[in-house]
Amino acid sequence: MSASKPRDAPNGTRAASWSEPQYYLSPITRPDEARWFRAEIPTSQVGIGGSQKIIKEGEDEMIYLDPTPEVKAMAHRAFPGYTGRTFKLNNSGRPVNMTSRWDGGSRDYFVVLQLGTNTTKAIPQNGTMFDHVNVESTPVLPGFIILEESIFRGKNMGITFHVNPENAIAFLPPPIDLTDVEKLVLRLTKNLKASYDGRKPRVDEARRQGVSESNFKAVQNTLIGKKLLNKAGAITTLGKNAITS
C-alpha cells in the first residue's frame, strides 16, 4: 500500500500515513489500530517477500556509543530505571521488530523518542495470543529514535539506539585508519581473555597468525596511544567501533 494514500480507519475517519509523526506517536489501543499501523509500511522496507520478521543485527554490525551526557539523557528519558553504561547504535535503516514479550527469561522493551521535542511513546507488551496489540516491524523515521532495552536470560544487555541514516551523523564516530595487525590485536583483545589456565590466548592466537609476542605488545602500546585500548589493555568504545565500521 502506498504511504501517500492513507487507509480508512475502522471508525470511518481517515487514518494518517505511517510517515506522519503525529500518527507515529499516537496511542495504539485496539487490534484494528495495530493492523493499519503495520499495513502502511512499504513492502520494499520490510525485506524479501514483504516479510515483517526482521532478524536482529549481530553484535559486530553495531556501533558502540560512549555514555556521554546526551546519550545517557535520552536513554534515561526512555528507560528511567536503567543504570548501565552499555549503549549501541543501529543505523542500518532496516525496520525494527518491536515484538515485546517474555520468552525464557528474555525480553526487549521499546520506546519511540522524537528528536527536538523529546516526546516519548512506550510500546506495550505485544506478540502473545493474549495481547490486544501486535506491533512487529516498524521503520525508523527521520527525526525519531527507537530505543530498545534488551534482557537476555535475565541479564541486561544495554540499550540500542535505532536511528534513521539521515540522523546517524550526530552519533557516528570519526573513521580511523588501522593496519591489519592493529585490527587483529583489537579483535583478539575484544574476543579472547588475556590469560587462562596458565596460557595467553590472545598472544597464542596472534602468534598462530604470524604476529610475535613482542610485536603484539608493541602494537598494544600503539593502540593505547590511540585510545583504542585503555592503559590496562582492555578495548575501549572507540576500539570496538574501529573494528565494526
Number of strands: 8
Please mark out the parts with pLDDT under 50 across 5 or more consecutive residues, or reply none. Answer: 1-60
Which percent range fits the helix content?
25-40%
Total helical elements = 7
Radius of gyration: 22 Å
What portion of residues belong to β-strands?
Answer: 15-25%
Helix vs. strand class: alpha+beta
State mean pLDDT (0 to 100 scale). 77
The total number of structural domains is 2
Outline the biggest β-sheet.
6 strands, mixed
* Widest sheet, order of strands: 1-2-8-7-4-5
Instruction: Specify the overall morphology.
Output: elongated
Q: Helix and strand succession?
A: HHEHEEEEEEEHHHH
Task: State the end-to-end CA separation.
Answer: 35 Å
Give me a quick take on this structure.
With 245 residues, the chain is α+β, with helices and mostly antiparallel strands. It contains seven helices and eight strands. The strands form two sheets. It has a six-stranded mixed sheet. The protein has a two-stranded antiparallel ribbon with strand order 3-6.
Provide a descriptive summary of the structure in words:
- The protein has 2 domains: 55-170, no CATH class; 180-242.
- The protein has 7 helices and 8 strands.
- It has helices at 21-24, 31-39, 69-78, 180-191, 201-208, 213-225, 237-242, and strands at residues 63-65, 87-90, 96-97, 107-114, 120-122, 137-138, 144-152, 155-163.
- Strands 1-2-8-7-4-5 form a 6-stranded mixed sheet. It has a two-stranded antiparallel ribbon with strand order 3-6.
- Helix 4 runs antiparallel to helix 5 (201-208) and helix 4 crosses helix 6 (213-225).
- The two termini are 35 Å apart.
